[in-house]
């Protein structure tokens, strides 16, 4: 949606999407998480669980970066492909969805995966609002065992293992995609 809005011919929509993107990029993920969890329910009649607040905050945090990655992918597709599709009578929306977007997604896949990995690391911040994730569980264990070195080392190793598996999967995907394009 943000990608479409930023490319919109409606000036107001394009400006709003750029302001949203710049604003979200300027706000640290922790501040956004705390704001969604504590301030948003004061503004809107919502009752957010820590999980819902984290999901909303991390989605908002990730969106402009994914839109930029996809936009770079769209710009990498030769514009003549879109023009030819339109000349052949394919509606603009259909040409974009079926011709340009798949190529853009393939081109920007490494950037998109990198942003998801970065976001996965940021989920450790959710322990600050009481979400029972890895860091929260680790803090509970530390309060019972008084062994922060061992617990934080284990948490770090678990995150590293998850990230390394994801990175390996990304490398494999990139190799398969490269072979497919030859």
Descriptive overview:
- Helix 2 crosses helix 4 (50-76) and helix 4 (50-76) packs across helix 6.
- The protein is flat.
- With 182 residues, the protein is mainly α.
- The protein is 82% helix and 0% strand.
- It is built from eight helices and no strands.
- The longest helix is centred in the C-terminal third of the chain and has 34 residues, at 148-181.
- Beta-strand percent range: under 5%
Count of helical segments? 8
- Give the total of beta strands: 0
What class would the helix/strand composition place it in? mainly alpha
Question: Over all CA atoms, what is the radius of gyration?
Answer: 21 Å
What is the helical fraction, as a range of percent? Answer: over 70%
Order of helices and strands: HHHHHHHH
């Amino acid at each position: 949606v943000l990608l479409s809005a930023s490319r919109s011919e409606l000036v107001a929509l394009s400006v709003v999407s750029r302001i949203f993107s710049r604003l979200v990029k300027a706000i640290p993920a922790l501040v956004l998480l705390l704001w969604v969890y504590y301030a948003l329910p004061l503004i809107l009649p919502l009752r957010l669980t820590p999980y819902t607040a984290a999901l909303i905050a991390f989605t908002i945090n990730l969106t402009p970066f994914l839109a930029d990655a996809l936009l770079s992918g769209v710009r990498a597709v030769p514009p003549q492909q879109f023009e030819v599709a339109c000349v052949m009578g394919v509606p603009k929306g259909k040409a974009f969805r079926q011709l340009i977007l798949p190529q853009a997604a393939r081109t920007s896949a490494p950037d998109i995966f990198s942003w998801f990995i970065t976001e996965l690391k940021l989920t450790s911040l959710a322990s600050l609002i009481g979400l029972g994730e890895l860091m929260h569980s680790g803090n509970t264990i530390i309060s019972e065992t008084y062994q922060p070195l061992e617990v934080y080392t284990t948490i770090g190793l678990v995150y590293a293992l998850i990230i390394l598996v994801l990175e390996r999967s990304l490398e494999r995907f990139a190799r398969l995609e490269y072979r497919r394009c030859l």
